[in-house]
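Appendix B.2, paired examples.
Example (i):
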Amino acid sequence: MIRSGRACALALAAAGALSAGGCASVRGLWQEASNRDMTNRVAPALQSTAWIHCDANAPAPALAGRWTLLAFFDPQSSATAERLAELSRIQDEFQPDGVVVFGITEVDRERTAYFLEEEPVRFSVLAGARADRVAFGIKNLWEPVVYLVDPYERILAKGLAASRGLLQEKFGH
């Protein structure tokens, strides 16, 4: 018997979404339910300082004054490589408009640098950022969690598709 409201809502959502073909797994629904939605809030300041710059021309790591995609990821997740490649394509497409992509992981700098040697990433990555993950309300990273932050440091969208859509609307791509 399901007793908690959250578990009940999750079970109903899973049954409806899975029967309608709207979701690949209950695990995906659980991730969405367990990660706090920060949309329409001011982005917490990034606390970690272990930056790895994958591009010599990488901008300074700051949120204020620019459109920023923050991509929280776990290098050990199977979904990470595909999402990071997509984020690199977005960086290339919107960089002329001043959009910046930052990857964020709680894995230490050395292991993250080793992981990035194999991935086609052209944006800066913040390593050892457990406190940043917690500040953004992210409990798990089975798949990367992406937030779009505007120049006033407000989070406008959660998710890669929603973020890309807003950027395309804003910059006319």
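Example (ii):
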Amino acid sequence: IQSAVFQPLANLVYVAVPEVEGAKPVDGHYVALPLDGKLDGFNPASGPELTPSRRPAPGAIRATALLRQASAIATEESRFVEAAGLLVEAAKLDPADPAYPLMAALTYFRAAPTRKGDTVKAAFVARGAELLDQAERLGLSAYQKALVALFRGRVADVLHRDHATARREYQLAATKLSRPLREAAEDGMGSRYKLGAFRKLVLDFIHVDVFRF
């Protein structure tokens, strides 16, 4: 057995078995077994068929390497501008994954308050907003759409001082999928978000599909 996939609600566990001894996981196939161990009357074909994992494309591997570099220089050295640039390059290497432009956007937002001059700070916020648009064109989950709405509301507050538009975005972000996200959106509806608050953003490069806000 090389790996296992559990589906408790379906009472199934899939185990990956290599086709030949010593084969890599990508060369194997999945066999379904009852999770409760009761084999009498069990039909292995009762669950959906799982296909073996596939080796990531070279671009995706290089994008992950850039993500790790961005994580190191952002979290250890607070070099947010360079980290954002690495994430933009990662998005080019793996253009189907919205996590890279989303993380790049958050990194630009985090960098904005550290810049000198209102014009430069505004430019960083605007660049982050562009990356939100880029991510949205890739197709987002409901959670990611709510996240984008939250930050669009913040951009409207910070860049355009348009709290009416911001409130509409915050209403879209007030999802039931995440209580912290909903609470952040409700806070935004109550008072205008200020650029300095971007300093509080925690850039979580480990759980890059979850995001912090």
